[in-house]
Amino acid sequence: MNTITMNAEANFAKLGLTLPPAPTPLGVYKPFLIDGKYLYVSGHGPVQDDKSLIIGRIGRELDMEQGKLAARQVGLTILSTIKTHVGELDKVKRVIKVLGMVNCTPEFERHPYIINGCSELFAAVWGEENGIGVRSAVGFGSLPDNIPVEIEALFELY
To answer: Can you give the C-alpha Rg of the chain in angstroms?
Structure first.
């Protein structure tokens, strides 16, 4: 086992960030599913510590930096789901894939910059070798509840 990924809990603690409560499904889906050594995480939004959502469209109510912070908050929400339902972050071997959806104005074109908020968090937790996977970052005309970012991810477990 790689010592960088086995220190994911310690790496997260060094960041000084807190995890919001893991969200519960508001529709007919599972927040996560484990199939063999793979952990699939459904699309998550930016849940805050008080369980409220960050709201707003990037390019209208939110600027790029606020959007990037919202994507980091989605990453924290995903980490919360992992800790709540799977256990320690050290159980994740690596990030395989991230799909980032950005609620933005039609003129906005910096979707990858926004999703970097989540990708940089994962790289800090699991290291650059195992914390960065393949990724898509795309713009949408709307997202549920007018959240600025929704992200789903696939991880490999030990």
So the answer is: 15
- Bridge partners of 40, per DSSP, are 33, 154
Q: What is the largest CA-CA distance in the chain?
A: 45
- Least Cα distance to 84 among 24, 134, 142 occurs for 24
pLDDT of residue 5: 56
Q: 104-121: per-residue pLDDT in tens?
A: 999 999 999 999 999 999
Cβ atoms of 41 and 123 closer than 8 Å: no
Entry pTM: 0.96
- Residue 90 gets the label, from left (phi > 0), alpha (psi -120 to 50) or beta, of alpha
DSSP label at residue 53: B
- Cα dihedral 153, 62, 68, 21 sign: negative
Q: Which band of pLDDT confidence, cut at 50, 70 and 90, is reported for residue 26?
A: confident
